[in-house]
Write a structure and sequence with these properties.
single chain; alpha+beta; 6 helices
Length: about 240
């Protein structure tokens, strides 16, 4: 069981570090646009994105996660539902290809693998080490102060005319790598994110069936292990 955790630790940590931006996601706008369209100034896009982030208190969506595992040159595809609530609460409920749950609140984190009958638990402080991440999860983050942001090259726009950006954290933290996002050009919400962990694994997250600010309760982000489950505490 510990071998499973070690194999997936990088991907799980990367997901946690990207959560400050996942709360901004919504579905793609239905209207298409030409990719040759000239994008807005980057400062204008960032300003709209910041306003949306500040108004988002909670988030629910179906997700598709594609993870390329560098060590075995294989892409894993998983599906499920994600629930997020500011500050520092998230629940990733995976349904395909097999069930598992990742639950995080401001004190604890749990990775529950029902098929293996095991739970890995960790203190939240061990996850939220980044000052940048803590600010965003507390509603205090400022994109322009915490990141160097530029348009992706050579494609600044995707095929629907949405903005493709690269964010580089300004904080000197080896666990925070540059990552890319796609921002809907009509409603200025992030619709796609791609990031790599320190082991070279690449993860892409896509969302659908979005609901925002529905009043998710804190109770959703608590976990009580079922009977007969082995529990391992991680450093």
């Amino acid at each position: 069981m510990k071998l499973f955790y070690k194999k997936n630790k990088g991907v799980i940590f990367a997901i946690m570090n990207s959560w400050a931006f996942i709360v901004l996601f919504t579905i793609l706008a239905p209207l298409a646009a030409l990719a040759a369209e000239k994008p807005l100034p980057i400062e204008e896009v960032v300003a709209h994105l910041q306003k949306t982030y500040e108004k988002t208190k909670d988030f629910k969506a179906s997700f598709l996660q594609e993870t390329f595992v560098q060590s075995i040159k294989k892409t894993d595809i998983e599906e499920g539902t994600v629930f997020l609530k500011n500050p520092k609460n998230m629940l990733w409920s995976y349904s395909k290809p097999k069930a598992k749950k990742l639950i995080v609140n401001n004190s604890k984190a749990w990775l529950y693998l029902p098929r293996e009958k095991v739970v890995y638990t960790q203190e939240a402080d061990a996850i939220f080490k980044s000052k940048t991440l803590i600010k965003f999860l507390s509603g205090l983050g400022k994109l322009k102060n915490d990141f160097s942001i530029k348009y992706a090259e050579p494609q600044m726009l995707d095929t629907q005319g949405n903005y493709q950006l690269v964010l580089t954290p300004l904080e000197n933290n080896p666990s925070l790598n540059p990552f890319s996002i796609t921002v809907d050009k009509n409603i200025y919400l992030i619709v796609r994110v791609n990031f790599e962990d320190t082991m070279g694994n690449s993860t892409t997250l896509k969302f659908s069936n979005i609901s925002v600010n529905t009043g998710l309760t804190d109770k959703m982000f608590q976990f009580h292990p079922p009977e007969g489950i082995s529990i391992f505490k991680m450093p």
